[in-house]
């Protein structure tokens, strides 16, 4: 999915926190968004995800503005993921369940993702009792399992240990290569953006820099 932003402005009261004249996010690539605290990275991601609709300007997804169909093809993994008070397995399978996928198929896909992200030890645990890093791994698994066309990641490895970061990065890149999904990742880790991103966008004071 290609995304084009035109004259996008976001205000909190009368404070302009995002001011993007023109920005194109390429289809099938991993785009990194970097920039200092408060520069508008999460705001931008929330707007692209359809979570925040209170902005000026236009955003096109391929050729259309947001609708239910496009909304169903994308997912946002937020910094503080919300997980249900159920098993990790049920949380990861949830996006497939709501899409009426059969139980056997759900099991196959959930176990494949659990395997790839190397989180077998978490499978039967209650999701609301997980640590911050464990929750991030599970929420990434829940996003990857339904193979969205647009995957939005807000600092997905901020609480993750170095060994696990390698695994998650490997799986984000694998997902992008295998499905040709568009991935946008907000990160403070410049080495990470160098490692996995095809393109990097620098935000400062709500504007796109060089
Ligand atoms: N709900 C809100 N009400 C008022 N101001 C807000 C709100 N949410 C964000 N802001 C302001 O908008 C600006 C951009 O915030 P945003 O969270 O997008 O920054 P960020 O680049 O993601 O920062 P960080 O790197 O710290 O996560 C900040 O100055 C922040 O204070």
Automatic annotation (TrEMBL):
Signal peptide positions on this chain: none
Where is each ABC transporter domain found? 3-210
Q: Which domain of life does the protein's organism represent?
A: Bacteria
Report if keyword DNA-binding is assigned: no
Coiled-coil annotated spans:
none
Which InterPro entries does the annotation name? AAA+_ATPase (IPR003593), ABC_SmlMolc_Importer (IPR050093), ABC_transporter-like_ATP-bd (IPR003439), ABC_transporter-like_CS (IPR017871), P-loop_NTPase (IPR027417)
UniProt keywords (A-Z) are:
ATP-binding, Nucleotide-binding, Transport
Q: Can you provide one Gene Ontology molecular function annotated for this UniProt record?
A: ATP hydrolysis activity
Q: Which PANTHER family does the record cross-reference, listed alphabetically?
A: AMINO ACID ABC TRANSPORTER, ATP-BINDING PROTEIN-RELATED, SPERMIDINE/PUTRESCINE IMPORT ATP-BINDING PROTEIN POTA
| Protein name as it appears in the record | Tungstate transport system ATP-binding protein
The organism is Proteiniborus ethanoligenes
């Amino acid at each position: 999915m290609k995304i084009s932003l035109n004259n996008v402005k976001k205000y909190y009261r009368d404070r302009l926190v995002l001011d993007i004249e023109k920005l194109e996010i390429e289809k099938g690539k991993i785009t990194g968004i970097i920039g200092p605290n408060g520069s508008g990275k999460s705001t931008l991601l929330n707007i692209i995800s359809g979570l925040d609709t209170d902005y000026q300007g236009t955003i096109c997804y391929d050729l259309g503005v947001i609708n239910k169909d496009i909304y169903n093809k994308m997912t946002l993994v937020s910094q503080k993921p919300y997980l249900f008070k159920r098993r990790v397995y049920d949380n990861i399978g949830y996006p497939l369940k709501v899409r009426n996928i059969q139980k056997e198929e759900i099991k196959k896909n959930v176990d494949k993702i659990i395997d790839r992200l190397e989180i077998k030890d978490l499978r039967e645990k209650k999701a609301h009792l997980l640590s911050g890093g464990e929750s991030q791994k599970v929420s990434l698994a829940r996003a990857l399992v339904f193979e969205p066309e647009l995957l939005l990641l807000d600092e997905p490895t901020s609480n993750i240990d170095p060994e696990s970061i390698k695994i998650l990065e490997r799986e984000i890149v694998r997902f992008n290569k295998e499905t040709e999904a568009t991935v946008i990742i907000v990160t403070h880790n410049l080495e990470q953006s160098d490692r996995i991103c095809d393109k990097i966008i620098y935000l400062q004071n709500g504007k796109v820099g060089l």
